[in-house]
Amino acid sequence: MGELLDIRRIYVEAGAAELPRGKEILGRWPEATIVEVESHQRIPELYGDETNVRRWVRIKREALVVGVKKTMTARPNGRSADFIAPSTANGCAMACAYCYVPRHKGYSNPITVFANIERVCSYVKGHAGRQGRKAEPNECDPVAWVYDIGENSDCSVDALISDNVRDLVELFRGLPDAKASFATKYVNRDLLDWDPRGRTRIRFSLMPPADAKVLDIRTSPVGERIAAIDDFVAAGYEVHVNFSPVVVRDGWLEDWADLLDQLDAGIGAAAKRQLAAEIIFLTHNRGLHEVNLGWHPRAEELIWRPELQQVKRSQNGDLNVRYRTGSKGGYVHALTGLIAQRTPYLRVRYAF
Ligand code: SF4
User: Which domain of life is it from (predicted)?
Assistant: First the structure.
């Protein structure tokens, strides 16, 4: 944990400091300097110079923000989950080159954790209760309503900071028609003791190690993520894999074949029986590309490939890029074909 987090300065909203969860978090780092802030969303000193990687990695490691989540919503999703649960954190101590989270929150993007977890839990419980039983199977899950609890953060790392994620995992044990889910790039073995009783799905993100080395900065190595799968299944989690982002480059399919072989060799029969995958090809963004050029141009050689990509202006005016429509179907087909060959038990929930 020392490598990833060494909290020295905690920015806290007064309302959060008074809550039991806020007190617990502050109590975990008694040596840290406490800075009271009016709003967890406006802390200019945390933004820093976007290309000063040393500064923002330091901020990620040393700063923590504790706030109160104001609005509760469960946004319909329909792909990896039926709903996006209200977040209990945002920001991340890791620093993947393609991550979209910093686009919204300033590049250093340290973890903000919300102290009003009881409100989040009671909202989720009420929302799930109102859905009743799921009438039709869909690509999220055949029977349960799936709630993504980690859209804007990595729950395995959040669990190093507070019991928020554990509270949610325990809540979902008792919700008969709903299931929690989150994608992760970090192996936190503390989660193995939480007894999730099959009601939480962890999606380990995987990509060929050659790509991860350049793109997945500060995360657990891909081999360590694969090696954790059996243990998480034995501990009562449903474990899926998240192939994302898939990066097209010379030799990409050969490297994916090797990764699938590594996955196949690294997991046992119990994991294979329940395994499924989601596949998401890379999307990128011009603003992020420009930031990355300032600190990590090697990553951009991999993920900024105008000859393969097309640009689309998003609703908020950002220029997003993705692989060209004409070729993308072929890439998807090639990768799903490889899966059918190398890991035929691996059900593909969706691929795009
Ligand atoms: S682990 Fe997830 S949230 Fe964290 S930097 Fe990587 S992509 Fe972003």
Answer: Bacteria
